[in-house]
Amino acid sequence: MKRKVIIDNRMREKEKNKLEELGYELLEINTSDKVYSEIVSHVDIFTCKVGEKIIVEPSQYMKLSKIPNVIKGKEEIQEKYPFDIKYNVCTIEKKAIHNFQYTDSKLKQELINDEYELINTTQGYTNCSIAVIDSNSAIVSDKGLYKILKFHGIDTLLVENNLDIKGKSSYEVRDILQGKGLEVSYMRGTNGMLPTTFDYQPKNSKDKIMESEKPVKLIEEIIEYISKPYEVLLDQFAGSGNFVIACNNKNRNAIAIEKDKAMFEKMKDNIESNLNVEFEEIDLEY
Description:
With about 290 residues, the protein is an alpha/beta fold. The protein is built from 10 helices and 13 strands. A 3-stranded mixed sheet has the order 3-4-5. A 3-stranded mixed sheet has the order 6-7-8. A 3-stranded mixed sheet has the order 9-10-11. Helix 8 (about 215-225) crosses helix 9 (about 240-250) and helix 9 (about 240-250) runs parallel beside helix 10 (about 260-275). The longest helix is centred in the C-terminal third of the chain and has 15 residues, at about 260-275.
């Protein structure tokens, strides 16, 4: 009987062929339209291994039901965080780490039945955030997880990022990383350069030009991380125009695009009143 392995259906053919050569039967996670693109068929989002059992999110159950000891979870994941983390529980020996407020109820009950110690954390994607080394060792880059794991007696290595990259171009960041002997590659959907939180209060709804309007100070801080003075930055969905104002305040050149005529007029008034300038209109054929 072939051994079975659950994989992300986006795995390259090269790896799929190699696994099949090794005698594995491949069971692919179906693409889901419930979550954002980077995790649409991510194994750790839709399954969780508890000892010899595998708890599976209901929409994936039929595909994986041929695996021994597969148990159907109770709740389907949802698009918005934290309702997409229901099955992303990390287990280390008989310890389970997760934000248990949002754990699938069937999965949580199986952990309790099997006498796992439930370690609660505010971090939701614990299985994606903890590299389990053995029955009592792990590697993390999150300081909060590091403290929790150490408190519960798990030998944990914290990998810290102490690089000063604020205001540096992507080329300078690349040179810094390579100078430290690190391999540089580019991945969609991940960026370790920006802070994980920004402390800026939005305007009151009645004072906003548009509902999703971002504070100018927030945009200023972000552009200082991603650009250098006098570089040209593009906003393809300009909306309120606060991006242009922030670029001006931080000595960046800006190109702003807004297709909605009514919103464009609001953007124009916002920029002119804040920067004390007047738009010059030109006709272009394209």
